[in-house]
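Submission sheet (multi-component)
Chains listed below:
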Amino acid sequence: MAKIDDEIGVVGALVRSAFLVNAVYAESAREYGITPQQGQLLCVLMAKPYGMGELGTTLGLAKSSLTGLVDRSERNGLVRREPDPQDMRAVRVALTADGSSLAEAFYVETCRRVAELPGSLSAEESGVLASLLGRIVLDNEVPMVFLEPPESR
Amino acid sequence: MAKIDDEIGVVGALVRSAFLVNAVYAESAREYGITPQQGQLLCVLMAKPYGMGELGTTLGLAKSSLTGLVDRSERNGLVRREPDPQDMRAVRVALTADGSSLAEAFYVETCRRVAELPGSLSAEESGVLASLLGRIVLDNEVPMVFLEPPESR
DNA sequence: GTGCAGTAGTTCGCACCACGAACTGACCTG
DNA sequence: CAGGTCAGTTCGTGGTGCGAACTACTGCAC
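Outcome: structure written.
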């Protein structure tokens, strides 16, 4: 009781903060001339090249959806399909030089913007938030769709 | 220092938890035979009818995007366009009876699923998380894209 | 009251996204 | 070497999101 009217439940807070982060992500992508999905693809590939199947499970997409996404990104020169030397069926998707620098720029800018969101939180509160959200992310086995910014560790 | 390797920064935690919530939201929508965007529209309209312009700013969509979304939802019988008695140009979008019950069911189920995500957090930790995220949501003026579950207050 | 600027929504054309079903070709096991 | 499986692609369908151009109504200026 005695909650002021600004009080919010965990569920609402999670859903609405997700909405907020999406909007920031989308706007950032837009300014770099890519779609949010392409941005996501680039961010995943920053870590290492992936096979199509792997990418599908990481991004939560069907195989056929991925073919198109990679096609378009390849057409834009951001990504390259390399043959897998071990398996003639398989393909390894990797960033091109252009893709790599765009990914880096997009990633850094997106980090910057997301980092501004908790502006009013103290460093300590940010730490608490990170650790609680981090547990949710780990417990639910959220794939590595976003690298850890090195300076934040 | 002395951080174990599972440690995560705020930025990564926010982005990845958003990814997680999206996935849950999308899967829930899927099971109710609607797209996430339509689900979002229904959730917003649960609170009250909206004009198209209002809806655009709330959902962060361009006018023209909204026309289509409302068209499709109307075609599915979930939503209705009512004339605004005050202004002959304007329109009020409201849930139909079908839309209202679908919205309610979708909303409840989505809440249930999102509520499971922080499963390993104690009640107290959940409270802390809610209040920190709540401040982010308030500070950044995230629109009411999701009602507050009554029982969580 | 007439005229005109601004507002609410729609239309159109475009590119993208996501899916399932059906398919191709390489792998592998018996 | 035959049949099953696995990686990816193709195809068709429907939904999404945008900007530019458009229609129709509102409201203010005069």
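Remark: Chain B touches chain A through 54 residues (CB under 8 Å).
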